[in-house]
């Protein structure tokens, strides 16, 4: 109870001081101080609807391998020399002529 009286007296003194301070001189501008209790009114706008992006299905790329080419390898031959004895390329030159030998 004492607190309420003290608060009321303090507010009355503040109001009297404001009136005395602003009322004695010729004022060019006015100042308004107000205290309000309540909830301000703001118009309500619902949030915009979120449209998810469309689902895009991209199939995986198809890789086609070329058909295997079957190439028969030519029969390879070795060349033998009788004088000096040996196979090409170990023996670089042959005086009697090269004799073809099937490779193993």
Secondary-structure element sequence? HEEE
Give the fraction of residues assigned to helices.
10-25%
Overall 3D shape: rod-shaped
Structure summary, number of beta strands: 3
Compute the number of helices: 1
The largest sheet is: 3 strands, antiparallel
Structural class: alpha+beta
Q: What is the mean pLDDT?
A: 80
Measured between the Cα atoms of the first and last residue, the distance is 123 Å
C-alpha-based Rg, rounded? 56 Å
Poorly predicted sequence stretches spanning 5 or more consecutive residues: none
Strand content: 5-15%
For the largest sheet, list the strands in their spatial order: 2-1-3
Give short descriptive properties of this protein:
single chain, 104 residues, alpha+beta, three-stranded antiparallel sheet, 1 helix, 21% helix
